Amino acid sequence: MPVHRSTLLRRGLAAATALPLLALAACGYGSEAKETDTAQVAAGAKKIDGLDSVKIGYFGNLTHGTALVAANKGYFQKELGATKASYQIFNAGPSEIEALNSDSIDIGWIGPSPAINGYTASQGKNLRIIGGSASGGVKLVVNPEKIKSLKDVKGKKIATPQLGNTQDVAFLNWIAEQGWKVDAESGKGDVSVVRTDNSVTPDAYKSGSIDGAWVPEPTASKLVAAGGKVLLDEADLWPDKKFVITNIIVRQEFLKEHPKAVEAVLKAAVEANKWINANPDKAKAAANAQLEADSGKALPADILDPAWKSIQFTNDPLASTLNTEAEHAVKAGLLEKPDLKGIYDLTLLNKVLKAEGESTVDDAGLGAS
Q1: What is the pLDDT of residues 266-290, one digit of tens each?
Q2: Which strands, in side-by-side order, build the sheet including 229-233?
Q3: Domain spanning 138-240 has what CATH number?
Q4: What fold does the segment set 5-137+242-355 form as a domain?
Q5: Quick one: CA torsion of 26, 31, 218, 303, rounded to 10 degrees?
């Protein structure tokens, strides 16, 4: 039976997290905090705001390449001085929002849907988006023997990472634009939407239990390496082929009490993005090295190379596209219309960008007053 938006919202509020309601119970706070061996505290460095550490969260995804590179190259530690940069690695947005809510992390890299829902679930009191990180890197990859055109997706089993996550919302919106019907919560309808963790999606594809997937990198390229075909790049659905896939968030209390520490992390992010865009091959290798350090496994070249090419690293949070993604969640029946006014505070980011001689970025009217 279809579940009304208000019911879904109440469940989300009760969990104090985001839309991926079914996945929350299975998610912890991510891996144990870990420190990179490459990050050395400079001699004579001082602590920022008297802090012993700043706890930074990110995913082991290439779409979080800014954080991967900044950790691997020691940019976070360099900017934080004698305040230790510590890290937690997450597999899903809800667990990272839960960690933020419980003060287990201070700053994190995360997708737009968890950020939207973490903000609305706390009535706008717990997080702020303080910067952009990445655009793109999301594709619909299918079995070419079963699906030869977009219209062939109807009637097939297509995976997304989680109920209500960023890719799930995008796929549900695309389905609706085709004129097809799907019950958002169950995933049943003209297309079967199968919520499958990215780590097992390639095996599900190989076994034939799914016919394709709408997923971020590097999962998309893993499916291609397994014989899949890219049927649609989500970037082609957006103006200028840009849409937010990763943002930087912070606890509002931490932002208020430790602005110098937040500014230091943003400096590291801007430095990382500048280096990534100037040195794409070296940056790709650095991100992969950090993935290996975090997970024990690096990506092979046939997956790493095409995945990296499809992601744009940017300091711009692409705020107008976040608002559009929220509208898509509302249309899908997964969210009551949210009030996103105040979700952004780009003051410190724009301060850093000005100091670097780079263009400032816009909050699309959704900035904190």
Answers
A1: 999 999 999 999 999 999 999 999 9
A2: 192-195, 157-160, 212-216, 138-142, 229-233
A3: 3.40.190.10
A4: D-Maltodextrin-Binding Protein; domain 2 (3.40.190)
A5: -130
